[in-house]
Design brief:
Number of domains: 3
CATH architecture of the largest domain: 3-Layer(aba) Sandwich
Number of helices: 10
Largest sheet: 7 strands, mixed
Helix content: 10-25%
Radius of gyration: 24 Å
Length: 475
């Protein structure tokens, strides 16, 4: 154990750091300014990882979390920090990654675009029903209070409803009030939980693969449309009908109500077909371009991907559009296009948009969304960019003037980076949800491209996640 350790800086991924005798120690769940005793979990030559044992003094930067589940639920990691301070550390995370990993000559990084709403910002949320409730003793007390070890979980025959506990696949934090999504999200979850308990509909036991009620997704759009998909583990028509009738009658505001039967060992719905109980089977969300005055509609099904913070997505896509510097003459290639949201958002300022995505179902959604918005200058193709973007494809559709790429957290495959270098578009706009892998890819693109603009955007307040948009120009 190390005593009276002063936390001096934020590191990344929700960890802060301290230095003891020249060794860097990464600590979870603390903030700069905290002074505490820590227990080392990993101890290498130049660095170590530790966990708090006792707080000697709390940082003056701290504030009281607004959620009673903070510290137990892993959904929010930074409620103990004022929002402006969260933005400061996120900006620093972007700068540190691009400078340390990318080792690039960088322009100034624009001030991070924060969220106007820091609560109730998610349009989609997924709750889990389980038989084992995750609990934790009271948090650390100042000046002598000790950290307690999380319990192994309590078996609750009546069931728990909320979120998977961080690091535990079989334990559920039983949530009373969540501030991530606006009502009626909590009302629906609590009502379904109580109805299942009263009617003896067993919650799912993920270890033994038994039980009925499994998960529930709620999607609430800015249009007011509300979609609920309840996932059950048994094809029990009586129980399904009983539950769905209750939800339909109790919550008439639900515009699309579905259920999905999942008998698999995992929670993925990609290979399952939700059944429509009420409504059209999808919801409509809208994105506005702001000053440009355009508004686009998107059809979102129970398995569709869409940015989970609609208002911040508008800001993120507006930055992307600005960095693309479109005049109406450009051919835009939208890589990792998903359901086409970025490509459609920039389409009014482009001559043509070519979207490429590996998942065929997402491409079908993209085509539907293009039709929904009456667009004639977009084309979407399913497959690997490396295979699709051949000389014959360029001859048929034209070479890109602008490439927009929005890869998953793992970043781009090196072969795709090489393909982008080969295509040599004058402008590349790289949208990233992971500045560390973005920095790695920018280092490879540095062979032909210079970074000319950088704009971080906060999509997820009270978490350590950050989006970053980079403009690159051909040297």
């Amino acid at each position: 154990m190390l005593e009276n350790v002063a936390v001096t800086d934020y590191a990344a991924e929700g960890k802060s750091l301290a230095k003891v005798n020249g060794k860097v120690i990464f600590i979870q769940g603390v903030v700069p300014g905290d002074v505490l005793d820590i227990q080392l979990l990993k101890n290498k030559k130049d660095w170590a990882e530790g966990r708090p044992i006792r707080f000697v003094n709390y940082s003056p930067e701290r504030e009281t979390p607004f959620c009673s589940h903070f510290g137990i639920c892993g959904g929010c990691q930074w409620q103990m920090l004022p929002y402006e301070k969260q933005l400061t550390y996120k900006q620093k995370q972007v700068a540190d990654n691009l400078e340390r990993i990318g080792k690039l000559d960088l322009p100034g990084i624009s001030a991070i675009i924060g969220a106007e709403e820091t609560k109730y910002y998610r349009n989609k949320i997924e709750y889990t029903f389980g038989t084992k409730e995750f609990t934790k003793e009271k948090p650390i007390k100042e000046g002598g209070g000790k950290v307690t070890t999380p319990s192994p979980g309590i078996d609750v025959p009546e069931g728990a409803a909320g979120f998977h506990a961080k690091g535990f696949f079989d334990k559920v934090v039983d949530i009373q009030t969540c501030y991530l999504q606006a009502e009626p999200t909590n009302e629906i979850r609590l009502a379904v939980k109580e109805f299942a308990r009263q009617n003896r509909l067993p919650f799912y036991d993920i270890r033994n693969h038994t039980g009925f009620l499994r998960t529930m997704q709620i999607r609430l759009c800015t249009t007011g449309e509300l979609m609920v998909n309840i996932v059950v583990a048994e094809d029990d028509k009586k129980n399904i009908a009983q539950l769905m009738q209750f939800v339909e009658e109790r919550f008439p505001a639900i515009t699309t109500l579905l259920y999905t039967i999942n008998r698999k060992w995992n929670d993925s719905l990609n290979d399952l077909e939700p059944a429509i109980w009420k409504g059209k089977g999808y919801v409509i969300e809208k994105l506005s371009t702001g000053s440009r005055g355009d508004e686009f509609e998107f059809k979102i099904g129970p398995k569709s991907f869409f940015q989970t913070n609609t208002r911040q997505a508008e800001k993120l896509y507006q930055v992307t559009n600005d960095f693309a510097e479109l005049t109406g003459k450009e051919i835009v290639y939208d890589l990792y296009c998903g359901t086409g949201s970025i490509g459609i958002f920039v389409s009014k300022m482009a001559k043509k948009v070519i979207g490429v995505e590996l998942i065929p179902a997402a491409i079908e959604d993209a085509k539907e969304n293009a039709q929904l918005n009456h667009l004639s200058n977009t084309s979407f193709f399913a497959g690997d960019v490396i295979d699709i973007c051949s000389d014959d494809f360029f001859a048929a559709h034209g070479k890109p003037d602008v490439i927009i790429t929005d890869p998953p957290r793992a970043g781009m495959h090196e072969k795709l980076v090489r393909k982008i270098l080969e295509m040599s578009a004058p402008t590349v706009v790289y949208v990233s949800c992971n500045p560390a892998t973005q920095a790695r890819d920018l280092s490879l693109l540095n062979e032909k491209y210079a970074v000319t603009k950088i704009q971080p955007v906060d999509m997820f307040p009270h978490t350590h996640h950050i989006e970053n948009v980079v403009q690159l120009k051909l040297r």
